[in-house]
Specification:
7 strands; alpha/beta; 13% strand
Length: 270
């Protein structure tokens, strides 16, 4: 990643959390930004602030990437504006917590569309031009949840496992062709993620700052890594699956979240 005013970074979920921190960090390095989220007000405010502070170009695209065909519309808008994306950061994502059979089906479908389908669609659309130029970077935000099934967050864990597997495969496919891939696998991070989910029950361990997560991602790109787990504790926990049986991991994680789900139910009846 060698910044210049003519290099464009596209960030999904840019209005808050890790996406917003990526925007601040990369703007400070001189990249121009394409900021995507559902909130026009937040995006315009962020774009105006960064353009003024760092003298960069910014473009705002309001989009709900959980909708069918949304990625294609984003790509079309970039094409119509003559924007060549040098760095793609697939950051947007949502989670749900609870017993799968009792969860809202539409919400879980949206979760799969945003966390997995949009990642594939945007990568499919923007990767060919990067390969043609022989340069480019794609960062897909996964999670420590990528490394084992997560009972009571079944869809979230499955989508993040998909993102990790997808990204590592493309890292190997493309690393000799000039395009770098990185799966960013943060643990619990101090963002609005759990607020949007409606519960803190899925939060495990100390919350990292999004700024720290972003800095570790950029350091890992410099090192040519396929994935990174920010934080030593998160790394140890994620790698524990290698030393335990699948059944043991499921039992440990299941008991942890079963207890939290039961407590949440009791609190809901008060």
């Amino acid at each position: 990643m060698k910044p210049s005013p003519n290099q464009w970074v596209l960030i999904t979920g840019a209005s808050s959390g890790i996406g917003k921190s990526f925007a601040h960090e990369l703007a400070a390095h001189g990249y121009s930004l394409i900021l995507i989220a559902r909130s026009k007000t937040k995006l315009v405010e962020l774009a105006t602030h960064l353009a003024t502070k760092h003298a960069i170009k910014t473009v705002v695209i309001v989009s709900d990437l959980s909708a069918e065909g949304a990625a294609a519309k984003v790509y079309q808008e970039c094409t119509e504006q003559g924007l060549s994306v040098d760095v793609l950061i697939n950051n947007a994502g949502i989670g749900t917590f609870g017993v799968f059979a009792e969860m809202d089906a539409d919400r879980q479908h949206r979760e799969m569309m945003l966390n997995a389908v949009a990642v594939v669609d945007l990568t499919q659309l923007f990767l060919p031009a990067m390969l043609q130029r022989g340069s480019g970077t794609i960062i897909n935000v996964a999670s420590t949840a990528s490394f084992q099934p997560i009972p009571y967050m079944a869809v979230y864990g499955a989508t993040k496992a998909f993102v990790l597997s997808f990204t590592e495969a493309l890292w190997e496919e493309n690393r000799r062709r000039g395009v770098q891939f990185l799966a960013l696998c943060p643990g619990t991070t101090n963002t609005s993620f759990f607020e949007a989910m409606g519960t803190e029950a899925g939060s495990v361990g100390k919350q990292a700052t999004p700024e720290y997560v972003v800095k570790r991602a950029l350091q890992s790109l410099e090192a040519g890594k396929a994935y990174v787990i920010p934080g030593l504790r998160n790394y140890v926990i994620a790698q524990a699956a290698r030393f335990l049986t699948h059944k043991q991991i499921l039992g440990i994680v299941g008991q942890l979240f079963r207890t939290r789900e039961h407590k949440q139910r009791l609190e809901g009846t008060r």
